[in-house]
Design brief:
Number of helices: 3
Distance between the termini: 57 Å
Strand order of the largest sheet: 4-5-6-7
Shape: globular
Strand content: 25-35%
Structural class: alpha+beta
Oligomer: single chain
Length: 204
């Protein structure tokens, strides 16, 4: 960030942005379940979910919020390097708020509807590009030597998941043949509760 502000999260589910020099409150963002229900019912809200998806997320959210204080996973809010964007995890995904306009400009990880992100870290180093071609979807963009590339990577942990997630502009690089192992997307061991649940099920 630019050092002029800091952000806090708290048990009342409000995200607050403070002026560093004066300690005065600059912004408050309401992430209570009541507010989430209000936005879901509002036709003006651009990030509405279908009813089934919203209900599933609310159930996970209630489980998260009912956890004991010493077992609740830590949550945080952070700024980008310019200090103009605030990022924090929510029921919808990772919200990106433009502090200058006070608008929600993007929700990251929204399609990952099985994950409730909780803790974030942002890497924003810029590197000088070599001559190559970047592919984003179906479009290809030529990159010339000397161009400065911004490739921010967001690291996120999720509730009841023993892995962390990387969100980036780059598409995952998959091997074109079987000579190299591909992405291991199911690499976490089952928890003790999951093993007990499987063991308790009657055998067919």
């Amino acid at each position: 960030a630019d050092g002029t502000s800091f952000a806090t999260t708290s048990s009342d589910w409000l995200v607050r942005v403070w002026a560093f020099a004066t300690g005065k409150l600059r912004r408050t963002y309401d992430e209570t379940l009541e507010r989430a229900h209000e936005l879901q019912k509002s036709s003006a809200f651009a990030h509405q979910l279908d009813a089934f998806d919203f209900g599933r997320r609310v159930a996970v959210e209630k489980e998260l919020r009912s956890a004991e204080a010493d077992r609740m996973p830590p949550s945080n809010a952070l700024f980008d390097s310019s200090g103009s964007l605030l990022l924090y995890p929510s029921l919808l995904g990772i919200k990106v708020v433009n502090l200058a306009t006070n608008r929600l400009v993007r929700v990251l990880g929204k399609v990952e509807n099985g994950e409730r992100f909780v803790s974030l870290a942002l890497y924003q180093e810029q590197q000088e590009a070599r001559s190559r071609t970047l592919t984003a979807g179906a479009a290809a963009t030529a990159v010339k030597p000397g161009d400065v590339l911004g490739d921010p990577t967001l690291f996120a942990a999720a509730f009841k998941r023993s892995r962390f997630y990387l969100l980036s502009r780059r598409e995952p690089e998959e091997p074109e043949d079987d000579s190299q192992p591909g992405r291991d997307v199911f690499n976490e061991k089952p928890t003790r509760d999951e093993l007990a649940l499987v063991a308790a099920q009657p055998k067919q």
